[in-house]
Amino acid sequence: MKKSLFIKFIVAYIIFGVLGFTVVALFSSRLTYGYLLHEQANSLYSEATLIATTYSETKDTSLSEDVVNEQMNAVSTFLHVDIWIVDRNGKILSDSNQKGYKGQQIENFDTTRTGGRFEVGNYHDMFPSEVLTVMAPVTREYTTSGYVIIHNSVQNILSSQYEILNIVYVTALIIFILSMGILVVFYVIVYRPLNKITIGATKYAAGDYAYKIETKSRDEMGYLAETLNFMSDEISKADDYQRQFIANVSHDFRSPLTSIKGYLEAILDGTVPKELEEKYLRRLISETERLTKLTKSMLNLGTLDKKGFLSRVNFDINRVIRDVCASFEMTCQKKGIVFELTFAEKKEMVYADYSKIQQVLYNLIDNALKFSNPKSSIAIRTGIRGNRVFISVKDTGIGIPKADLGKIWDRFYKADQSRGKDKHGTGLGLSIVKSIINAHGENIDCISTEGVGTEFIFTLPPAYYPEQNGEG
User: Fold this and answer.
1) In CATH, what number does 5-177 get?
2) How far is CA 427 from the centre of its chain?
3) Residues 27-77: tens digit of each pLDDT
4) Torsion sign, CA atoms 168, 170, 176, 179
5) Distance between CA 8 and CA 22 in Å, rounded?
6) What is the C-alpha separation between 222 and 315, in angstroms, rounded?
7) What would the DSSP string read from start to end of 108-132?
8) pLDDT tens digits for range 416-442
9) What is the CATH number of domain 309-465?
């Protein structure tokens, strides 16, 4: 809002007001003048007809002004008009205001000029300014004896018009001033909140995510402000996560690289005796395997972030568990750990991605082995709950502190207690597990008690057979 929206609104409002006032003035002037002209003409014609009727009903056969002189004077004085009585040829027989017109002959007298009702002009150039003229015939025995002509100055009509227009203009001005309240409403309800939102957006663009847009409105502006505040919180969290992610990646890559560099330098400068070189070369291989594992885990996460990566089939989850447990046979023998497998059915068919679920089980069992005490057991169970197959992996290890339970699914996260036991871990295993289970539209939960052990429980959909759904 470099060019203030409020200023633009004021300018637009003023332009609208000026144009509106101009249009009102133009049209109201014409309409008022036309209306007053016709109303005055009708009124004067009625008076002229009344006077002509009085003449028609008198017994005097002449058009003597004495007959209606009193009536003419009264009408002339009341309406501020000039009343003439003329004969058939246009000779003025009587003039109500005694202005010297009596006895004059109207040149080119034509009874059709008024269009049967009225005309506006100088009336045969007999008046210095425009007048409104009406004419009514005086008839006796079906014969026109003369005419009653009434003239009213157009200036009188204009004076009435100006009075009415003054009322219209004052009313329009009052409405215009009162309607400026719209500007106040716009400023309070729209502009001020919008200005705060603009400032907030500028702050967020500059990286100041701690700034909060304060607005008390509960309308669309308030909703927009709350949305931007929520967005800033999420961006701040994502920014923190990104910094933590980079720090964790740097740490996890730096440790094996430092070891590799140190061992190689020691071998090259002869610090390591020839008979120990094989030992240190094996350590180098171990560190490179650690880097390979970390890189592979990160690539897996990149794949899991893409949609549509699952390839679902029906398979026996119990058999997969047995196969995965068998792959840890050597590790179990070294630590004296045994698996306790409890299956509700001999076969438990599920509909899922075989390789991805195999990876889930491998990561969960690998974690259980790392943090289990020697000569202990790991319990693995499967069963049916409602319309889902559940799988449980439970160890009797060190457990997870309550403060860390909500963070174990974060990438590269390692609880402080686990760092001593998990020297070669990447902190990505549980993040991969959760991503795979969520991709299946299922859930995974963790129940843990420090010093007692940890249990992971997740669900999978049962086997899917198209013929059961009318698709066979």
Assistant:
1) 3.30.450.20
2) 41
3) 888 888 888 888 888 888 888 888 888 777 665 545 555 555 666 777 777
4) negative
5) 21
6) 52
7) T--TTTTTTTEEEE-TTTTSSS-EE
8) 444 444 444 455 678 778 888 888 889
9) 3.30.565.10
